[in-house]
Amino acid sequence: MKRPARAWLLPLSVLVALLLGLLPLPPGLQPFRPYWLALVVAYWVIEDHDRAGLGLAFAVGLIGDLAFGGLLGEQALRLTVMAFILQRFRNQLRFFPIAQQALAIGGLLLNDRVVAAAIHVALGEPQLPWMYWLAPVLGMLLWAPLYVLLDAIGRSRRAR
């Protein structure tokens, strides 16, 4: 029997991810900013495929594009590509240990940088400096705490 998830947790986690993405950082730390939206969307696609999928990824990406002021549709495309790959391998990923999941998420975040670079090349936009390619490593390291936090919040509310 499937336990119902709290309906408020998904939009709240997306809102927090947007706010973390908008949080001002010193210029030296800017390249290391994790892609919070991708981490949150990845969690929901893996854990609640009934409510989270390509549509959620696209909608969250458009909201991210509007909030961050980038190219309209860039984050939507990037998150949709990531969600598509996650949906394809969701059954395997769910049974990976958390460290192995983190490696897979790191690979997806690196793939996200490749997709972003391809979009920039196709549109003649300037490329991000090489330091921005280190952010997927930080995202990979943050996967385990984020996964455990969201899972604990969801489980504690479901147990009541």
Automatic annotation (TrEMBL):
Pfam families in the cross-refs: MreD
Intracellular or extracellular location(s): Cell inner membrane; Cell membrane
Gene Ontology biological process: regulation of cell shape
Record keywords, A-Z: Cell inner membrane, Cell membrane, Cell shape, Membrane, Transmembrane, Transmembrane helix
One Gene Ontology CC term in the entry: plasma membrane
Transmembrane segments: 52-72, 93-110, 130-150
Keyword Transmembrane: yes
Main location: membrane
Membrane topology: Multi-pass membrane protein
The keyword Membrane is assigned to this record: yes
Family label: Belongs to the MreD family.
Its biological purpose: Involved in formation of the rod shape of the cell. May also contribute to regulation of formation of penicillin-binding proteins.
The protein, known as: Rod shape-determining protein MreD
Lineage summary: Bacteria, Pseudomonadati, Pseudomonadota, Gammaproteobacteria, Lysobacterales
Gene from which this protein is expressed: mreD
